[in-house]
Amino acid sequence: MTKSHKDIPLTPISDTPSTMNATGLWRIVTPVVDRKKCKKCNICWKFCPEAAVRLVNGEPVIDLSYCKGCGICAHECPQKCIVMAKEGEQ
Amino acid sequence: MTRMVMTGNYASAYGAKLARAQVIAAYPITPQTSIVEKLAEFVAAGELNAKFIPVEGEHSAMAACIAAETAGARSYTATSSQGLTLMHEVLMWASGARLPIVMTNVSRAMAPPWSVWVDHMDSVAQRDTGWLQFFCESNQEVLDTIIMAYKVCESNGVMLPAMIIEDAFILSHTSEPVDVPEQSAVDSFLPQYAPELKLEVGKALGFGSLVKPDQYMEFRYKAMEGMEEAKSRILGVEREFKHIFGREYGGLLDRYRCDDAEVVLACAGSVASTAKDVVDSMREKGSKVGLARIRAFRPFPHDEFKALANSVEGLGVLDRSYTFGAAGAMYTEVKASAFSAQKKPAMKNYIAGLGGRDITPKILEKIFEDIQMATKRREGPEVEWVDVAGLPRRWR
Question: Is the pTM above the cut of 0.80?
């Protein structure tokens, strides 16, 4: 808790970027990509609302520091090559 | 100083120009349009060195002003009615981020029924957004209040935004003689905007970031302190303004012939000027009446009304809007202040002039007589809807 309201600025000001907030900690299910079925269409990359899909040589790699496990990538994948596995069971 | 004949809207535009607004972002809406048209002309002609940002709506207009002020630029916008209410979410951001934006709202009725005429519902509905709110009586007051508002709002202890309220058409599109001060005089009165903290290139900071429950209340407490500080700053800045420009408007509550008044009517906006004439004519006939014009609705002149309640027999409040399920918003606040007084005057609320309906001298005289009656015996509803077709009481 703040010692006194006198010691804080008028509005909260942060000097760290919001990427410090590792939203991956929220996840209870994890996307798992079947590399053999993946056609590198990049649709998962386009749809990810957290920009947690990175493309490495055209292949999707999920950044688990930020992936919240929403499952949009698995839902949108035309090849159905992404499955949502329970945390720790993938 | 130059004396020009101009509308309230041009008075707003000249006010923003003289205050040297650096960023203007606005979306046109009747009856505000000619404010931003005039400002666009000033910028295009090179008479005002500002960035003019045409946006796709009022929410974006306010968002652009927020960004500009965060980067340390003095900003201005203008809107009305549906446009103001569309801004509602970002109005809260502007005050919470402690950005002293100044905006003109040309007060106009909310739809439906569709209307473009004067009514204070749009402005009153924003009273809890943390903005200072000034209701103006004349075009001169509009121009002068914009300049004063920047000085009040940008001062260290305040740092909150302000809304300058012009009545639709009665001020916005009616021409009056207005004294336009010299730019050099305004420059010496109003220093450049120099916030302590601002967003700067090469120095990344996040403004208005997330705080947890152990910190939130302290930020709100500080905003409350800012609004309280505004009360004395409004008076101080007006004294200084009078010293340089020779004009004053009565601080938070403009009291007209209230000193020995037995009955006082409180109201806001242009109707006050008609009511002052009615006070004069009733005084000539021996009635001790007075007018209290609510110039600042936020911060609210609580102490002023408390003192007034102690000195009068009857206190009426004319609201040009209605809070459904309660009464006029100004009435409930005046009544709350009066409750802190030692003496409790008879009080009545008059809902009048909605959607631009004329509030004539005759109607105002009847309202004064009704307050006088209420000091002797209580009859009729506490909240009167004035001049509504089909109601038994005649006001015209």
Answer: yes
